[in-house]
Structures are given as C-alpha cells and as structure tokens.
Amino acid sequence: MLKVGLEIHGYLNTNEKLFCRCKVLHGKKHSESNVNICPVCTGQPGSKPLLPNTEAVKKVIEIAIILGCRISPEGLWQRKHYSWPDLPKGFQSTISGPHSVPSGTGGKFMGIRIKECHLEEDPAAWNPITGEVDYNRSGAPLVEIVTEPDFKTSEEVVSWLGNLMSTLSYVSAIDKKSGLKADVNVSITGGERVEIKNINSFRKIKEAIDLEFTRQEKNPPKIEETRTYDEEKKMTVLMRTKDSAMDYRFISEPDLPVLKISQVLINEIKKSIPKLPFEKMKKLVTKYKIEKRYAEILTKRLSLVELFEELVKKVKPEIAIPWVSVELLGVANYNKMDVDEIDINPEHFTKLLLAVESGKISELKAKDILRGWAKGSSPPEKEIEEGKKIELKEIDKIAKEVIKENEKAVKDYKAGQKNSLNFLIGEIMKKSGKRAGFKETREALLGILG
Amino acid sequence: MVEKMTTLEKLKKYLEKIKEKDKDLNIFLEVRPESELIDEAKRIDEKIKDGKAGRLAGYVIGVKPNINVVGFHASCSSKVLEDYKSTYDATVIKKIKEEDGLIIGMVNSDEFACGSSGETSAYGPVKNPVNPELIPGGSSSGSAACIAAGFCDMALGSDTGGSIRNPASHCGVVGIKPTYASVSRHGLIDLSMSFDQIGPIAKNVHDATLLLDVIRGKDENDSISLESGKLNLKELGKKKKFKIGILDFKIQDERIQKLIDEKVKEISKKYGWNVKKVRIEYIDTAIETYYPIVYTEFFSATRKFDGRKYGKKIEDSCGPEVLRRVLGGAEITRSEHEGRNYYLALRVRKLIEEEYARAFKEMDIIISPTVPRLPHKIGEKITIEEMYSYDALTIPSNLAGNCSMSVPVGKVDGIPVGMQIMADKFQEQKMLEVGALVEGFGERR
User: Fold this and answer.
1) Which position among A95, A249, A250, B387 has the lowest Cβ density within 10 Å, counted as fewest Cβ atoms?
2) How many domains does chain A have?
3) Taking residues B363-389, what's their average pLDDT?
4) Residue B412's CB: how many other CB atoms inside 10 A?
C-alpha cells in the first residue's frame, strides 16, 4: 500500500521580506535581478535581522488556525546550517528544528493530519548554469506545512494540495501564484521511507509519486534515502542515503528575541478569518441548485468554485457551470496540466461566456478560444469579433453547397439515417470556420431537405 | 572639552606620528587618504567656528576592522576578508559621523577578534606602544595601541570576552565594555553574537564616556538592542559614596592584585567608600563556560565565508586560532550531541548571571584586576590554556551581560595595569563616576 506525506513551502502574502524592509514581488511579476536587496537579505558581514515582519507572523498563525493546529505561544528562532550557493548567511532562519517548537502543531485539514506548520525564510535563486544568484526572493517569508503520511494515492495528494493552496490564498495568507515547493515522502508497506526533494508543480508531484511507487513496488527500499525527480528522464534519482544525511547543526538564533504569540492576538486573528471557501461552497451548491454531477467536480477543487463565483457575477449560472467544471478541466487534461496551473483571468472568461450567452459566437468557437488559453488567458475581444456567428443567409448558402457535395449523406438521411444529419451539420461547421450557430444550421438544413 | 588645537592641526600631528612610528608598531591596517582627511578636518573646523558642530567635532577616531565603514576594508585582520570592502556604515559609525567625529582609518586586531594578544592578525602582530617587545593585548589590540601611541583621540573596539578591557589594561588606556545590547551591533562582524559588544577606548574616562554616549541606544537594525539612559558627563569626578565589592578570586600574579588592593584602599579612604570582599560562585568555570558558546556561535557566524561570495573559504585561509574555533564549533554543534554542550554552557552562564544580579543587590561596584597576568613578549610560546587565562576576569562580565571598564591605576615592572570596574546592567553612569574618581589616582600618562 502506498503512503505519502508532504512538506509544502508556500509564499506568504506580505509586502516586505521577513527580516528586512525589502519588497517581495508576488505572482508572475518579474523584475531585474537583485533589485530588492539590502545588507540583511544578502547576508553582508555584520548585518543583523530586523524583528520579524508582523504581517508574516500573523499569516502563519492564520494558517495554523485554518489547519486546526495548536499554536505555540513562544517561537524560538533557529539557525539551520547548510552550504549552498543560494544561501547568503550559510544558514536559514526558521521556527523549527530540535530545539524549537513549531508555530503550529497537531492539526487536520480536509481529512489529512498536519504534523506542523512554521515560519521560515526563503533562500535566494541560484542559476546553476550561469552561476548567477538573484537575491530578490532571499529572505521572503515562507510557511512550511508538514503532513503526516496520510495520502494513499497521487490523485488524492494533488486534489488536496489544490484545495490547500486555494483555501490559503482565498484568505490572502499565501500567494498561490508565486507557486509552491514540496518535498514528498513516499513509502510502501514493508519499505523504508524515501523523500523526493523540491518538486515545484502539481503535475510533477503526481508524476514523481507514481514513478516512485512503481519503482518501490519492484524493489522495496531497505534504507531511508533522499531522491530528486528528473523530469526529462521521467525517473527519481538518488541524492543521498540516511548514512550520509545532512547535519543542519541547529542552534538557537542569538540575534533574535523569542517570538511571543499572545492569546489576544490568536483570538483577534480567529475573528478576522473570513468564511472558508469550502463552507461557502456548500452554500453555493444550494443557492445555485447546481446539479450533483457538477457539484461533485466543484467540491474537489476550490479554485473552480472561486472562478465560478467570479463568473456568475455577470454570466447566468447554468451557462457558467459546464464551462468551469467540464470544458476548463478538459483543456487541462488535454494539455496534461493541473487545472490550478492554468492561469485564467476571470474577466477574460466572463467576456467569453457573455458572448456565448448572447449568441454572438458559437459554443464551438468559444471552446476553440478557451483551448488557446492553456498557457494563460488573454482578452478575447478580438477573437470574438473575428469568430462571430455568420448570418442565416450565409448558412443557407453553405448548406446548399454541402448538400451538393455530399449526395450520399443526403440520400442516407432521406432513407431514414438520422446520423447523417449530424455529419452534414459538421461539414457546415467546418466550412464556416465554426462560425455557424448549431441551432441555426440544423434548422437551415431541415428547411432545405424538407 | 575640545582641546585648543584645531581639528586640522591635531590631524596633521597624528598623521606625522603615524608616519614616523607605525612602521614599527603595526597599528594601522588602512589610513584614509590624506587629502580626504584634511578636507573633512577643514569642514569640521568650519562647523566649530559657526557653532554648528556635533559633540565629537575635533576628535580623531580609529576603528577596529570588524566594524563596517563605507569604503573601508572590514577585513577582520584576516586574509579571508582582505578583499571585502564595506557597502554600508555600522550604526555606531553612522552616529559618529552625525556628531562630526573624524574617522582616520582601520586599526589592526586579532583575526576575527579571536585572540587575547594581538598576535593572530594575518597582517602581523600589533606592538605595545609602552614597550614594543610586548604584546598589547587583544583582540582590540590596535584600538588600544593607537590611543597609547598617540595616533588618535578615541577608538572603537569590540568586546566578546575582554577584547576591549584587556588591551586597554596592557596599554594603559581607558576601555569600556557596555552592557550587552546597549550599543547596536548592526555592522559589527560576528565573533559570538550573544556576547559581542562594541565599546570605546580613549585616553581618559571623560572621552570614553562621551563616545559611549554617542554610540549607545536602541537600533531597529539590531533586534535585541535596548534603550539605555543618557550619560551625564558633568557628574564625572564629583565626590560621591559607593558600596564597593572587591572580587575574592586568586590570580596568578600577586603583584597585580596587591596594586589593585592598595589603590582601592587609598581611594576608599579618601571618599569614604564602603569596601568589602565579594565572592561570585561559579566564576572559576567562566572560561570553560565561555568557549563552547563562542566556538558554537562563531562556527555559525562564519558559514557565510564559504568562498563563494567573499573570495576565500574561511577554513582554507584563516590562522590556527580561528580554525580551532571553527572546527570546535563544528564538533559541538553536531546533531548527535543534541546541543548538549552549547545548551549546558548557556545554563551555567545563566547561573553566573544570577550570581552577579544577587551581588549587585548589595553593592554598586565590583572591582578586580582587569587581567590576571602581565603581557608576554611577542612571539613567546605560551599554551592555549595560558592564552585563554588572560581573560579569566573579563569573561564573567560578558557571561553576565553587565557593564565593566578598565582604568589604568599604575604599573608593575613598568608595565601598565588596569583596574576592572564592573556594575550591574545599565548602570554605566555609576560605573563611569567610579572610574573617573579612580582615574584621578592613576599614574597619569
């Protein structure tokens, strides 16, 4: 039997870094290398950490509350030492490790037990090819969430992760668009635990788990080891075994006071947490009388609920629901992506669906446009204009041409083969560049064929 | 109390002296370009004339090379950082500049402040200006020597286990280790973060007090720094009564203890001080408690010198004492020890801290010699235990986090001897008032 546990790093949604006043860039925003830096986040000799960013502290407590964790009243900062080009100080500052109590412990979220969650800082970004180090991210506040090995399938992992990220980004605790990094622990009954380090997308996490499962079933691991996922070769590769495990030489941070978390603060944060998406979603299902088959899809993915909510501000729910729960998922599957990896701007989607709703473009044309959004949506106005439905007269003309060119199909139809009508409709669609409305085409054909 | 000489005249006098004598004494690592210094001295003199000058106008100041000053090499007297040029000013430097202090350059020290003799510098040992055959003490060797040699008025040092007081004692100048966290460490390159403290060294208590008053105070850039009371210079030298404790502790060189005891007797008689002996439990374990903490924190602090950013990896380019501490720290922090040694040491340290807190409920000041032995000859082989024993009386103040200072009180064998005056945390004013009265009895240089 497969057992999987996760260590997830998410970017906290703060304006500034954890121990200095430098800005944190969020989402897909990019800037030149090494713009938001100072002596602290580049680890210049003699620099000291400022008191931790209070926004970051609050957000970690918020996350701990949402994950149902016990909150530690005292956070003891630790230095976790290792040598790597991306690490300016030679250690990472974290509220975890053998001499500390993590910010939150012993929780449960959507059926999965949470071992701990804690606050720490991000290292810089190192490019192994050019050797360049970009410190823009160095010192950005991260939350690390560690689960117990409660997952039994890779599908379960990915859908849970999606829900976790959506929930936490819904309350603005984390910045979902900055991505996540996860270490994945995989083991099978009777085998030792294997950790796969640093995977940064849902798709890769699923692939790595599936590949590792197959590998372990053939050859159950006898010692604990750390591996890495090689995406190109589609295999996990050994990094080190337990014997050569990294020693982080944890010590308490002498340059920072103990982080005190008062019950007053915890209560304040509890009060400020908005209704969580999954509770809200249950209400949505009742409010919009969503069919069971669609509701089941939505309950697995909170990001879809969020998107749906945005869309129904302007689009009729019965139009929006199949587009979110069927069509968008179809695009993800076709591109072998996770639906959360598709960057859809709700405004673009709304415009597209309004065009469908008003009959300006055909559904087929709209699906075409949506398919083009696999790498991110764009304003659809131009495509809508170019792909707008043709007039009845035009349909009539094309229909007559198609009838002439497909005598056999016409004969078959007249002989009682109703399927042939669909074939003819399809031919008209093709000829019109999907710009003929389905209903109109059908009526035009029936009119001619009698 | 600015002397009658203008800043420019004084600067020129110092520069001349440095040129004449520093080849031999090896005190300065880097002197600022002369034209730049002269321009700044002129600017300061203008300000003095206009009555707009800051409190340090007219003072020429040397800086230990583990403190960042924009444009200077904060080499820590090490090859590891020989190419590192500071990109920012330490908070203490910023404050000095704001008060129109004239920074003349960077002085030599023990490598990464690891040493008690001034011999571990990668740029050669510093000589004691009082007797160039002898060590000046350390690790702020150049900071004390530059005052004793008459190269400048004031200097900044750093004190982790006695590194300001020890050379101040051997060189016959005044050195202050302020209360832990009362002076910002932002910009001070780490030795042992839970002990490190920047402090002043000067010719007399007045000047040292003035510099301390400028640099002290809470700083956002040093999260554990704390606010402290303003120092009142006018109270220095006023006749006052104090409750004095003489530390009951046997030291190697009885002549030093005798000199201290005599001075205390003489002064207390004059001012009517109440004097009694005081025992501090566990201070015989001070050195053994101190070094595991120093090794551990120094190991952590030097992980950034991995050869990737500052050119040289510390383990490959440092001297033997620095290497001993790095390797020692790497051993102590191994996860199989589960932090035992470091955390045990921290617990003993807490006990010593409590012992001092108890003692200071009964008395204002605890007096002892600053250093239990006289300085050795440069190059003379001494054991590591002997070397570490130089700091037996200064380390306890770092363990307790309180304030202490060394004031010259006389000579043994022609070598200056300092009296250590220690007070409770944030009781600098009291300590300095005692220091100023003691100074009146010292053999003035």
Assistant:
1) B387
2) 3
3) 96
4) 14
Which residue from B40, B39, B69 is spatially nearest to B57, judged by alpha carbons? B40
Note if B300 is an active site residue: no
Judged by DSSP in three states, B184 sits in coil
Q: What is the C-alpha to C-alpha distance for residues A318 and A288, in angstroms, rounded to an integer?
A: 9
CB–CB contact A47 B187 (8 Å):
yes
Between CA B321 and CA B331 the distance in angstroms is: 15
**A194 with A243, same domain?**
yes
CB contact under 8 A, A43 and B304: yes
**Dist CA B228 CA B224 (whole Å):** 13
Q: Is A241 left (phi over 0), alpha (psi -120 to 50) or beta?
A: beta
Q: Would you list the DSSP string of B67-96?
A: B--TTSB--TTSSTTTT-B-SS--HHHHHH
pLDDT of residue B2: 46
Residues B264-275: pLDDT tens digits? 999 999 999 999
Say if residue A210 is in the same domain as residue A104.
yes
Could you say which of A386, A405, A425 is where a domain stops? Answer: A386
Does residue B443 register a pLDDT over 70?
Answer: no
Domain residue limits at A431: 392-449
Q: Looking at residue A27, what is its pLDDT?
A: 67
Q: What confidence category does residue B182 fall into, taking pLDDT thresholds of 50, 70 and 90?
A: very high
Q: Which two tokens stand for residue A160?
A: 């849970």
pLDDT tens for B296-349 read 999 999 999 999 988 799 999 999 999 999 999 999 999 888 888 888 999 999
Side-chain half-sphere exposure of B377, counting CA atoms within 13 A: 4
A interface mutation test: which of B64, B197, B303 has the most A CBs within 10 A? B303
- Shared-domain flag, residues A96 and A13: yes
Q: Which of A18, A38, A44 to mutate to test the interface with B (most CBs of B within 10 A)?
A: A44
Domain end (from A228, A252, A272): A272
